[in-house]
Amino acid sequence: MRAELEQDFERFKRELPPDFAVHVRSAYRIDLTARYLGERLPHPIGKGSGQLSLNAGQLEEDAAAGLAFAVLKTVIAEDVAGTQTMAAWAIHETRMRVERRVAADGRPGWTVTWKGRGWDRTLDEYIALVRAGRDLTRAGGLLVVPSVKYHLPRLDEAFREVEYRHTTARLAQAWGTPPLLVEKDFSPTLAGDALADDRAQILRWLREVPGRIRAAAPLPARVAVKLMNARFDNAFQLDMMQAAGEADALVCFNRLFDAGRGVAYGGWDLSDRNLRVLDLYRPLPPSAALYRPVTGTGNICSGRLILDYARRGCESVQLHTFFQLPLSQYPATHGSRTQRALHALVFHPQDGLIAGMLELEARGEIERRDGELHFLDVRGHAHRPG
Ligand SMILES: Cc1cc2nc3c(=O)[nH]c(=O)nc-3n(C[C@H](O)[C@H](O)[C@H](O)COP(=O)(O)O)c2cc1C
Fold first, then answer.
1. Is any atom of ligand 1 closer than 6 Å to the C-beta of 321?
2. 274 Cβ below 6 A of ligand 1
3. How far is the CA of 225 from the centre of ligand 1 (A)?
4. Closest-lying ligand 1 atom to the alpha carbon of residue 185
5. DSSP state, 372?
6. In this predicted model, what pLDDT tens digit does every residue of 283-328 receive, in sequence order?
7. 346: nearest Cα among 27, 44, 15
C-alpha cells in the first residue's frame, strides 16, 4: 500500500480525481466518510467561512475539486428595514496578506493577516449566493452552508428577535427544503471586543442563541456554533462548549486575537491551543442523547493535523489558511488551490490522511471492520481513558 500511495501521490500531482474518496475506498479499503451538522460527507475536508466563499465561482471551483463542504462568508443579520445591530462587523476590506507566523515554541507556520470582518454587500446579494450554494448542494457537488452573525446583547439587554427572524426567514426561503443548516459565528474580533469582556454575557449568548435561531426559522433548522478563542483560560473554552449544549454541532475554535496589532491570527499557536482544549473535552459517545458533534478548525495543514483533531472527537474539519498558500508550497503542479491542497492533505506519503490512517491501524488505535478502516472510527479514541 505504501508503494501504491507513493504512486498515487506522484500521478495525482497533475490532476486529482474529484471522486478521490471512491478511489481511496477501493484502493486502500479506507472509508473516509465524515459528517457535518448531521449531513453525511464523502470525506472530512471542508472550507471554513471567510474570503474563499464569497461568490458562486469559488463554490463551483470547489465542487469541481471534490471539496466536501464549504461554509459561506459570515453575513451580518438585519431586520426588515435593513438595520444591523452588529453593523460594526459589516466593514469593507479587501487586502489580505498570507504571511509566515512563528509560534511561541519557534515552529514556523502560516497565517492570513486581514483587517476585515463580515459580508460587506447587501443581504439580497448574500441570498443570491445561498441560492447558488443550494443548487450545487442539490446537484450533489458539495454541501454549502450559510454563516450568520446575529445580534448579541449585553446581559441587561434583550435579543433583537426581529433581526433573527428576518435574516433566518430569508435564508430559509432561499434554501426551500428542510433542514436549513446555519452556522453561527462567534469571531476572533468579537473575542477582542469589549462586548466579550464578561464571561456571564458570553455564556448567556451560547445558551440562548441556538434555540433563538431555530425558533426564528420557518423551517426545521440545524445550528452549528462556531466558538471563538475567548481571552480567558482553557477551562472557559470548555465552559463555552458546555453552554452551547443546545447547538446541533460545535466548530472549535476560531482564530486567536492579537490585541496589540488588532488582528486575528493562526499558525501552530492556534492548533496547539485548540488541541489542548479538545484534549480536556470528553465528548459523550455518539450513541448518547446529549452527544454534540464537533468539527475542528485551526491550522489544519496536513492529514496528520486532521487526525489530531479527529482523535479528539472531531467528525470533520474546516480549513481556510491552507487553501491560500503560495503555489510553491503545494507538491501538486497543476490544478486549483483547492485541488492542490486536497492532494497534499490526502495523498502525501508521510503526512497525508491515508498514511496517517494506516499508521493509526499499525498502532492498534483503529481496526478494520469488514476489511475497511473508517475515518469516523478515529474519534472513538476520544472516549478511551488516558
Ligand atoms: C481572511 C479570513 C477571513 C475569515 N472570515 C471568517 C468569517 O467571516 N466567519 C467565520 O466564521 N470565520 C472566518 N474565518 C475563520 C476561518 O473560517 C477558520 O476557522 C480559521 O481561519 C482557522 O482555520 P485556518 O487556520 O485553516 O485558517 C476567516 C479566516 C480568515 C483567514
1. yes
2. no
3. 14
4. 11
5. B
6. 788 888 778 899 999 999 999 999 999 999 999 999 999 999 999 9
7. 44
